[in-house]
Specification:
Largest sheet: 3 strands, antiparallel
Structural class: mainly alpha
Shape: globular
Oligomer: single chain
């Protein structure tokens, strides 16, 4: 199987949460399970891989920033397209279900 890009993986997880409450640290944790470089501290002088993912998703307006720095929004139509795409590909239609422990941890920190 091919490895999904970190951007796509984060976005797929965002497709299954409340659209106005996308927790960016949670997405980082989930995407970091398949892309450990997202969780590692960047070396001095090198860009943070997670911040690059975050900037791309926000820059393409796939996610939109909220006043709270750790939260974003995802448009409901973007969510629906992602859900249908995952279902049609025969993939796990709810990738965030596997990550319940991560969600519990972040809910407790909010």
């Amino acid at each position: 199987p091919t490895r999904r890009s970190s951007d796509l993986l984060a976005l797929e997880h965002a497709a299954f949460v409340a659209p106005d409450w996308v927790a960016l640290p949670w997405l980082r944790e989930l995407a970091g399970r398949e892309h450990p470089e997202l969780l590692a501290e960047p070396e001095e002088g090198y860009p943070d891989p997670w911040r690059q993912v975050e900037r791309r998703l926000l820059g393409l307006r796939l996610l939109t920033a909220r006043e709270e720095p750790h939260l974003a929004r995802i448009h409901r139509l973007v969510q629906e397209v992602l859900r249908q795409r995952l279902g049609a590909a025969g993939g796990d239609a709810r990738p965030c279900v596997r990550a319940g422990g991560v969600a519990q941890g972040w809910l407790g920190r909010a």
